[in-house]
Structure to design on (477 residues):
């Protein structure tokens, strides 16, 4: 088999809009450079590509254009290329909060929509067209740089850096980030996924070429300036230990409700340089343990499958819409409710033109390991359900791939005993409660279309005994 890696720079100019909050923010410094990192695998005439982009999220159109360029430059079939955002909250201007002003050109309330959109994050057209070119370039370069290689796959556990951020509270509801040491917390409302999935590639001379890493945790530590967030330190940790110039492609797992913040602990808030390093180094150290156990071999078969499902959007109730229109005339900075009011109006307007959204489910298989993706900020529980039902020895769930449909919570979280930020109706959470179940079902169905390969094992011991000095009888002492 052959494997190639490439990474290209996508650091935006200073002053670029930084998406990640409800309002406007602009970059003022560069902590570390942003990249598109690609890995291309080939065996038995089939090629597949896994691509990680240091971005909060990606528009499906940006990925589509990037796939087209990868096709033009390297003949890669678009359905064989998976492109996922790492979800760094210090990335470039890739996000149109409500889908872009063009969508609303036929709205009878266009003036109001424009005024509201002017307060929300907006993508930079030049940047996203550059990003598409860099996605295509990274895939084409990785393809061009392929060498004969062997691959290993494994899973480690890191349980100490990620935390479910939603809690069951004493009042019977659920809340997101209720505050450190809040005495009304009963316990977490959802799980974490401690799996650190690693697919590593090795040259025939034994040289480490690079790896693809899958772990579920929001990239919200926020070191100062533009940054890949904690995966920057994951990259540094693996490079430092392995030497040479390997590429570490990071694909985030189902982390819709999982972050580095430990609400159950009263220690300092887990933000900034120190915590970016701590999370990245600990995940990186676990990656190194998996790499130490590597038994590289030929992985086959390679394969890819794709399905587009349509997910219905939530309809804004009339009384909610009325109160949103009242609130929207007040001061935006006065209350977070202003942003939810804005989003209720935008969602309602958007529903005129797009009452459902396309959602690409994709699976890419490299022998015994399958990467199965969706464009959601998927709740951890839903990712675990996909893993549990998978017929593959190794299943790595990838979120925010090939587009973005916002948060997809569990039905329980969206039910009468639920609550919290991720389920609050708005542009960040615009899908009906059944969306999660549909993504899980479509993912499992897709996996069934692929035939899992076998994991390479260590060679067996040779027949006979290598050492005969251990069983000397007492009469011979
Ligand atoms: Zn998020």
């Amino acid at each position: 088999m052959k494997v190639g890696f490439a990474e290209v720079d996508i650091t935006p100019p200073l002053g670029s809009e930084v998406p990640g909050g409800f309002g406007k923010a602009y970059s003022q410094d560069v902590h570390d450079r942003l990249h598109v990192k690609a890995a291309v695998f080939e065996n038995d005439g089939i090629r597949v590509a896994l691509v990680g982009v240091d971005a909060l999220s990606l528009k499906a159109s940006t990925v589509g254009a990037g796939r087209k360029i990868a096709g033009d430059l390297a003949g890669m079939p678009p359905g064989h290329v998976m492109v996922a955002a790492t979800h760094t909250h210090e990335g470039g201007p890739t996000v149109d909060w409500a889908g872009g002003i063009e969508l609303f050109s036929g709205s009878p309330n266009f003036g109001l929509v424009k005024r509201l959109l002017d307060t929300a994050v907006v993508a930079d057209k030049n940047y996203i067209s550059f990003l598409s070119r860099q996605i295509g370039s990274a895939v084409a370069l990785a393809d061009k740089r392929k060498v004969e290689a062997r691959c290993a796959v494994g899973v480690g556990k890191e349980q100490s850096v990620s935390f479910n951020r939603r809690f069951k509270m004493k009042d019977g509801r659920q809340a997101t980030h209720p505050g450190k040491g809040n005495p009304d917390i009963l316990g977490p409302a959802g799980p974490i996924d401690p799996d650190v999935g690693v697919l590593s590639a090795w040259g025939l001379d034994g040289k480490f070429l690079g790896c693809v890493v899958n772990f579920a945790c929001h990239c919200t530590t926020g070191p100062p300036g533009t940054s890949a967030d904690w995966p920057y330190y994951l990259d540094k940790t693996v490079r430092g230990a392995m030497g040479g110039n390997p590429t570490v492609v990071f694909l985030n797992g189902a982390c819709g409700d999982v972050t580095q913040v430990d609400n159950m602990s009263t220690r300092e808030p887990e933000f900034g340089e120190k915590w970016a390093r701590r999370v990245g180094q600990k995940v990186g150290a676990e990656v190194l343990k998996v790499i130490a156990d590597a038994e590289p071999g030929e992985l086959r078969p390679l394969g890819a499958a794709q399905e587009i499902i349509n997910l219905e959007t939530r309809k804004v109730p009339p009384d909610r819409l009325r109160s949103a229109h009242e609130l929207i005339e007040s001061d935006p900075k006065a209350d977070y409710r202003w942003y939810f009011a804005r989003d209720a109006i935008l969602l309602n307007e958007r529903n005129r033109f797009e009452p459902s959204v396309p959602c690409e489910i994709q699976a890419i298989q490299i022998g015994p390991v399958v990467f199965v993706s969706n464009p959601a900020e998927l709740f951890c529980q839903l990712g675990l359900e996909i893993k549990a039902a998978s017929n593959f020895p190794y299943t790595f769930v990838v979120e925010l791939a090939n587009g973005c449909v916002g948060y997809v919570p569990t039905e329980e979280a969206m039910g009468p005993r639920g609550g919290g930020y991720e389920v609050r109706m708005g542009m960040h959470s615009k899908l009906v409660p059944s969306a999660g179940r549909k993504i899980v079902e479509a993912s499992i169905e897709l996996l069934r279309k692929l035939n899992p390969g076998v994991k390479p094992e260590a060679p067996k011991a040779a027949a006979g005994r290598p050492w005969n000095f251990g069983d000397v009888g007492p009469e011979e002492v």
User: Anything to note?
Assistant: The chain has two domains: 2-306+358-448, 308-353. Residues 313 and 431 are 4 Å apart (CA to CA). The pocket of zinc ion is lined by residues 87, 218, 377 (CB under 6 Å). The radius of gyration is 23 Å.
